[in-house]
Amino acid sequence: MSEAAQTLEGWYALHDFRSIDWIAWTAADDEERGLALDELNAFLKQWQSVEDGKQGSTAFYSIVGQKADFVLMHLRETLEELNELETAFNKSAFAAFTIPAHSYVSVVELSNYMGQPGSDPLQNPEIVARLKPILPKWNHICFYPMNKRRQGNDNWYMLSMDERKEMMRSHGMIGRKYAGKVKQIITGSVGFDNWEWGVTLFADEALQFKKLVYEMRFDEVSARFGDFGDFYVGNRLTEEKVAEMLRV
Ligand code: 76R
């Protein structure tokens, strides 16, 4: 058996994709819509205070195209907290105007491919900060799930640790070229959801997603071993932006 990569886990993640029930929303009266919007804003404030207390983080983005209208990406210390906040939101008047489009459950993950042998990563504040990241407030989000292939000669899980390390080094070098332009959060979902990882990217310029993902396609880890699910891309929502989006 090949040596398994060691992983460090941080906050649990829920990507909650919703569509808006536009028929119900436009048929509702001003008062109903006002109450629903106030409730949404109260949730946004509550999630912000959790983030201010460094107990979790939430990102709120629109989604372009028909797969969903928006995504709430929540990070929390436990799976129970994620479940509670999801249920609380579902009971709100605003959520009653939404239709579930997709969801993804995972946990922030760092693997030891690039780690320094002999050091305790959990004593390193930079690593701890990466395991419990405050999500950036950048203009755009991109999310997609992925697997590492397990087929014939292209079986990632049959490679030796050294072979995988070498390929991950090359992967990391490409990624580093996008430092400051794209922020990646890798969440592991083996045992939690349908794919092995969720890839969440943030950027101020949406084109950087295309450039980064395309460049990686030529790198062996992605070219030989990457299998990808649906891509979701969108724009940052603030209280003002969501009010504008929902104005009828
Ligand atoms: O953690 C680190 O920064 C060290 C290097 C590194 C690891 C270990 C790294 C760097 N990644 C790692 C692990 Mn990554 N990453 C992806 C995708 O679209 C595709 O082709 C793949 C989707 C992107 C766009 C991306 C970006 N990475 C992983 C893993 C876990 C693999 C495993 O354990 O087998 C996956 C699934 C994955 C996928 N990667 C980087 C980036 C970027 C931008 C970097 C540089 C980060 C930086 O240096 O700040």
Automatic annotation (TrEMBL):
Q: Which UniProt keywords apply?
A: Heme, Heme biosynthesis, Iron, Metal-binding, Oxidoreductase, Peroxidase
Enzyme superclass (EC): oxidoreductase
InterPro entries in the record: CHDC (IPR031332), ChdC/CLD (IPR010644), Dimeric_a/b-barrel (IPR011008)
A molecular function (GO) held by this record is: peroxidase activity
Q: How is the cofactor bound?
A: Fe-coproporphyrin III acts as both substrate and redox cofactor.
> Which residues does the annotation say bind Fe-coproporphyrin III?
R130, Y144, P145, M146, N147, K148, H171, Q184, S222
Report which reactions are catalysed by this protein. Fe-coproporphyrin III + 2 H2O2 + 2 H(+) = heme b + 2 CO2 + 4 H2O; harderoheme III + H2O2 + H(+) = heme b + CO2 + 2 H2O; Fe-coproporphyrin III + H2O2 + H(+) = harderoheme III + CO2 + 2 H2O
Summarizing the function annotation, the protein's role is: Involved in coproporphyrin-dependent heme b biosynthesis. Catalyzes the decarboxylation of Fe-coproporphyrin III (coproheme) to heme b (protoheme IX), the last step of the pathway. The reaction occurs in a stepwise manner with a three-propionate intermediate.
Under HAMAP family, the record lists: Coproheme_decarbox_1
Family per similarity comment: Belongs to the ChdC family. Type 1 subfamily.
Protein name per Swiss-Prot or TrEMBL = Coproheme decarboxylase
Its source organism is: Paenibacillus artemisiicola
Which gene name belongs to this protein?
chdC
